[in-house]
Amino acid sequence: MAIEQTKISLPLTRFVHTEKRQLLCEGTALLPDARFVGAKILHADAIIRMGSAQITADQLSVEGAVLFNVLYTGGDEPVGSAQAQYAFTHVFEVPDAAPDMRAFAGSRVDSVAATLTGARVGLKAVVTLWAEGEAAEQIEAVQSLSDGQAQTLEQTAALCTARTHGLRRMLLEGDDELPLPT
């Protein structure tokens, strides 16, 4: 007597790679007015504009830009503002990456420093980048067994996944095991 089985495919998202790195972005900007004897920087900050995250063979590349904003005093105006933008590309090594995987990236600015020398502003930002690579897979599960007569064993199969949000991500998964007839 042969036992027939019915299988179903369930989608599964598997984390291939998760990594976080700190980077230093540096640059210089010229103040709009070159007559700044005794000028002072009042405040400097930065934001990150994320561009794209792509997976290629064994690499996950992240593109974006750091946008600096500097408030200063001196010259003819009591308060002035200067902006500068620096593009970046950062590559994470991801063993066993494939182009059909999905890539996600995030960022934050940890600290910003600005120094003034004449009309030239030296800008530095410590930036944290994180990137994830995910692969979509299918797993098979037995949904029902039948011995060819009237006896049938059925089980609802489900794959449950959950993911936390934030820098520390983890994958929790649970699955139902089907009892096989003895």
Description:
With 182 residues, the protein is mainly β. It has no helices and 9 strands. It is rod-shaped and about 95 Å long. The model is unreliable at 164-182 (pLDDT under 50).
Oligomer: single chain
Unreliable segments of 5+ consecutive residues: 164-182
Q: Report Rg.
A: 27 Å
Which structural class is indicated by helix and strand composition? mainly beta
The main β sheet shows up as: 4 strands, antiparallel
Shape call: rod-shaped
Bin the helical content.
under 10%
N-to-C order of helices and strands: EEEEEEEEE
> How much strand?
over 45%
Mean of all residue-level pLDDT scores: 77
| Tally of contiguous helical segments | 0
What is the first-to-last residue Cα distance?
14 Å
Total beta-strand segments: 9
Descriptive key words:
mainly beta; 73% strand; four-stranded antiparallel β-sheet; three-stranded antiparallel β-sheet; disordered C terminus; 182 residues
Quick overview of this protein structure:
By secondary structure, this protein is mainly β.
Question: Can you lay out the helices and strands and say which pair or pack?
Answer:
Blueprint: E1 4-30, E2 40-56, E3 59-74, E4 77-93, E5 102-117, E6 120-146, E7 152-154, E8 159-163, E9 171-175
Antiparallel strand pairs: 1-6, 2-3, 3-4, 5-6, 6-7, 8-9
